[in-house]
Amino acid sequence: MLLRTEKICKYFGGLKAVDDVDFVLKKGQLKSIIGPNGAGKTTLFNLIAGAYLPTKGKVFLKDKDISRFTLNKVSRLGVVKTYQINHIFPNLTVFENIRIAAQVRKTSFNIWRQAASYREINELAEEILLQVELAEKRNQPASTLSHGERRYLEIGIALATQPEVLLLDEPTAGMSCAETNQCADMIKNLNRNLGLSIVLVEHDMSVVMSISEEILVMNEGRTLAEGTPREVSDNEEVQRVYLG
Amino acid sequence: MSEIPWNVIAMQLFFGIALGCIFVLLSSGMSIIYGLLDVVNFAHGTFAMLGAYAVFVVVSLSDSFFVGIVSAVVIVGIIGMVIEFLLLKPLYGKDPLLPLLLTFGLSVAIPDFMKIVFGLIGKPISFPDALSGAITLGPLTLPGYRLFIIIFTLVVMISLWLFLKKSDLGMIIRASTRDSQMVQTLGINVSRIWTVGFGMGVGLAALAGAIAAPMMSATPDMGVDMTMTAFVVTVVGGLGSLGGAIVGGLFIGLVVAFTSYVASAYSSVAMYFCMAVILLVRPRGLFGEQGRE
Amino acid sequence: MVDDRTSTIKLPNLHSPPKPVIVYGTFIVLLFLPLIISTPLATEILIWTIFGLGFNLLLGYTGVLSFGHAAYFGLGAYAAGLAFRYLDASVPVGIIMGILAAMLLACIIGALAIRSKGVYFAMISLAFGQMLYFLALSPLKGITGGEDGLTRIPSLDFLSFSLGKPLPLYYFVCIITGIMLFVTWRILQSPFGKLLQAFRENEERAKACGYNTTLVKYCSLVISAFYAGLAGALNTVYLSYVPLSTLFWLTSGTMVMMTILGGKGTFLGPLLGVGVFLFLQNTISLFTPRWELFVGAIFVVIILVFPGGIMGTLTEKFAAFRMRRQGE
């Protein structure tokens, strides 16, 4: 068991955004969280990533309690999130966007050695540029990318920190149909070929059903159902929430 | 402290509250502007200075202090609305530091302009006759003008509160403070509300400058100190909170009054020191909202 | 939200690091500056440039606006002045004292204020700056000389050159400026320098990448105070006197105006901004003592029309020109 939450809760005033959720991710697994709007998916996500402090309950990474860790500490431990709305470094070049994330495990506060002279970091950044198919645009400012390309860069930045668990928050949001399929393929490849464990929050059901190994369905902050795509789509409760 | 007789303490308390009232007017204007427009008005004290000069001009023309106060608020309010309309509007939605920098530029330029028009030397403004005396209350002799400041501020703040709570425009202003986009969707011209709000905020600053003027006379450079005080009060009370401006203003007024009695050399330093302590204990200020720090 | 603002094509070369030839070329130009303008003005430009290099690191590259940098500049000036006057310190020792004092102050103020963001940080830093000003004005009058400033600083020598004479002093400051230009250039291309820019672009994301962003901001402030302290100490050497106005808020404000004027976040912006500002100030003062009115008004216009400053606007025009050429 790689990542696990134990009866985790997050209340915003009277609103129970996440209420008593047990979430388990095994190593190498691709697991999706789905649910209607306001079900608490993104909140759960932010609790795991360390962006929010839980009201109650715990988060464990390999049996280590990380519930009280801040975003940057959790990220260093290898659990990295992407953002639903693009969070890139707009005025830096595409390469620099990736490179800055790639240097996190090597160096942060060296003020003298030239960044360009770190060979491993540069190689890692180049490799990731290829993975997210942005190598041709490497010297453009990130602000000049198209929406779809920014979504890729978003994933690339997260990848460059060399995570163990990748938390993807609606990676295909706003993409066209063709782009969505391409993106789904890329996510699948990251999981199958690189062995990355991935948690996916996604609206597009076809993507979720085709690439996830397991699915957690949330509704009103609680777990509604859990299981393989098959089991979930056969579940009556789930059908009621989605169709009724 | 035990050697200080109680009536001296009471007097300092009284002076402190009177001073604090000026700070309350000043900072509540700043809070309204920040709450509504997300603009930290660096020229806030400069508008207070303009208010003091407006009183000087109007009093020398009309010979009535009260006409002076009212026209100071109106004149400076209109100047503020023009500045908001012409200079600040183009900056909304861009880098949030730009409005601060722009008002900073104004606070450099405007005092020099006033020096050219009115000269370097301050303009004294005499107390209105009706308020120049003192009122004896038991063993205490309270200067009438300071008593007037306290009562006047109380009246202004209560009317401000009633205005924001009860009137239609006040309601719109409060709603825009929370969520201006939502108000926009309701078909209200929020842009005009911002202009009015800015005018109100600097109008309050002008009011503070106007009623402070008889005690310190109007000088071109008085604005900076008032801006600084407004900043300190705002940091102590919490950015964008009217309650914070009131409590923070009174608190800082008392601090200044007591330190100038106990250790006058430290009177200017004391309020900054208080701010540092508050920051250490409660970084978002006494009434600040979470996440606004 | 960030995207909407920046979706217009921005200039790739604005934020890319300068080529080494620019750094060396600038230094060589500075060597000949006294031939063009009066030596004291040239010296003053260099001192403010050093101050500006550090300030730009904080405002332009880290995106943090401090309105209280006079505190670091002034404390550096006073610490050096006190060391010269009372301890009979040599020039390097006095300067180091100035730098250390400024950095120490930045450590303290930073610890109190660093968690506050944006305009809030600007207000708080300004208030702390004023606190120092009023401390020097009255409670610490015995040490600082109060309103009269710190006087009776002995004339100083360095390696048997008298720094009381304009030209040796100019070249002394010029060499230090050259070193600081080079150091700044190194910092900007170091992993830390890149991190500063990432912080400016998107603090939240830098944090999600695993960086302790609060510490990044703190270090940036302290490094910036290093420059301010150095400039303050050099100012003491230059004037043989520490005016109280070094601590005044207008000193911070002047620095802000210079940096914005030259172009924040550009390598040569501070130098240009300082040069143009001091030139304007000196020229306008010939006609009227009310130079602040004009400088303030010019600043307002710049904020409204050219928020990129001189360097930013030039680079933009240049990029547009090149794109048109390519289009033809």
- SSE series of chain A: EEEEHEEHEHHHEHEHEEHH
Reported for the largest beta sheet of chain A, the result is: 6 strands, mixed
Largest sheet of chain B: 2 strands, antiparallel
Q: How many helices of chain B in DSSP terms? A: 11
Q: Could you say which overall geometry of chain B the principal axes of the C-alpha atoms support?
A: globular
Strand arrangement within the widest β-sheet of chain A reads 7-8-9-4-10-11
Unreliable sequence segments of chain A: none
**Strand-residue fraction of chain A?**
15-25%
Structural class of chain A: alpha/beta
- Total number of distinct structural domains of chain B: 1
Total DSSP helices of chain A: 9
Q: What is the percent of helical residues of chain B?
A: over 70%
In CATH, what is the class of chain B? Answer: Mainly Alpha
Radius of gyration of chain B: 19 Å
CATH topology of chain B: ABC transporter involved in vitamin B12 uptake, BtuC
What's the short story on this structure?
The complex is a heterotrimer of chains A (244), B (293) and C (328). Chain A is of the alpha/beta class and 244 residues long.
Keywords:
B: 293 residues; mainly alpha; ABC transporter involved in vitamin B12 uptake, BtuC; two-stranded antiparallel sheet; 2 strands; 74% helix; 3% strand; C: mainly alpha; two-stranded antiparallel ribbon; 76% helix; globular; disordered N terminus
Q: What does this protein look like?
A:
The complex is a heterotrimer of chains A (244), B (293) and C (328). With 244 residues, chain A is α/β, with parallel strands linked by helices. Chain A has helices at 41-49, 71-76, 94-102, 119-131, 147-160, 177-194, 205-211, 229-234, 236-243; strands at residues 3-12, 15-21, 24-25, 30-34, 56-61, 64-65, 79-81, 165-169, 197-201, 214-219, 222-227. The longest helix of chain A is centred in the last third of the chain and has 18 residues, at 177-194. Chain B has helices at 6-37, 44-62, 65-88, 97-118, 144-166, 168-178, 180-185, 190-216, 222-237, 242-262, 267-281; strands spanning 134-137, 140-143. In chain B, helix 6 crosses helix 8 (190-216) and helix 9 (222-237) runs parallel beside helix 11 (267-281). The longest helix of chain B is centred in the first third of the chain and has 32 residues, at 6-37. The two termini of chain B are 36 Å apart. Chain C has a two-stranded antiparallel ribbon. Chain C has a single domain (2-327), classed as ABC transporter involved in vitamin B12 uptake, BtuC. The model of chain C is unreliable at 1-14 (pLDDT under 50). Chain C has 17 helices and two strands. The interface between A and C is large, with 49 and 39 residues.
